[in-house]
Design goal:
Elements (H helix, E strand, L loop, with lengths): L26 H5 L3 H15 L4 H11 L6 H17 L6 H25 L3 E2 L2 E2 L1 H5 L1 H20 L4 H23 L8 H26 L4 H28 L2 H4 L5 H4 L5 H9 L1 H8 L7 H11 L2 H18 L8 H15 L3
Antiparallel strand pairs: 1-2
Helix pairs in contact: 2-3, 2-5, 4-5, 4-9, 4-17, 5-7, 5-9, 7-8, 8-9, 9-10, 10-16, 10-17, 13-14, 13-15, 13-16, 16-17
Length: 349
Amino acid sequence: MDSSGESIDEQGFSHSLNLADIPLLPLEEILAPVQKDMAQMNANLLSIVGDRHPMLKAAAEQIFGAGGKKVRPMLVFLVARATCQASGMKDLTKEHRSLAEITEMIHTASLVHDDVLDECDLRRGSRTVNSKYGTRMAVLAGDYLFAQSSWFLANLNNLEVIKLISQVIADFANGEIAQAANLFDCDVTLETYMEKSFYKTASLIAASCRSAAVFSGMDEELKEDMFNYGKHLGLAFQVVDDILDFTQTEEQLGKPQGQDLAGGNLTCPIIYAMETNPELRDIIESEFQEEDSLEEALAMVNASGGIDKAMGLAKEEGQKALDSLQRLPEGAMRNSLAGMVAYVLQRIH
């Protein structure tokens, strides 16, 4: 027990799921309960591409071996094991395992296509597929992964999950189109920003968490809880990402600071800053034609309180994610799901 009389488990978790009470764990400790599941999935991912196309196989090795944390399939396994525990199932089904692989394939395909759209040469410190093999191969590699994920999805033989995950692929396109349509639009609202962030980031996490609960035979209320956990965790992740564009150095980001602002992608720190600084709006609408105007705009976002307000929004989304875990049984799986919320939010400090 702590000084307030709240009981604390061996990982430092109380029965409460308040954000302030969640201990900050390293990712390795969060991953630990599903480490074997993740190792099996990693081995399966490369075999999915096969040896038929040597260049595509090389591209796949480049993609899947690029040092990513594979957070999305990890969340699938954690939700799957937590909900299996809730339903009394002894182990994961083959559908749970296939869902994790599908989730990583879809996420990876979207990154490959994003790098083509954004003309990125580096991701996670490694050369992107388009910089190493060319745009044509990158587009084909992304298409192949989307096609393979669709095939595996169809073979799950569960209409609810097929509808959920298929919608994600449409959401990716909706998010990209919404972003492109609103570049340098200073009338963009926070609601529009959150909707775009759901499409681009949170949709896949939400749908895959709910799908994991489907394969554990959960009731509608708990399935919706898992959807909301993924949704709000994904939104918190995106808001934090957008904050880091202003608070981290170019070396930490792996790209120039303020790249979103420079390209006219108006994220929540900028939207909040424009509410208190009309001059910032004028500079953005000029599309930074004047010398040093971008640096001036970056300073305004930092000085206006936009970053602090965005941090508050990220924490609100994090608490909503935690609230969605209340009906899960206590234990290592729920602790890791809660720990992921703290892990996502700690990046802003």
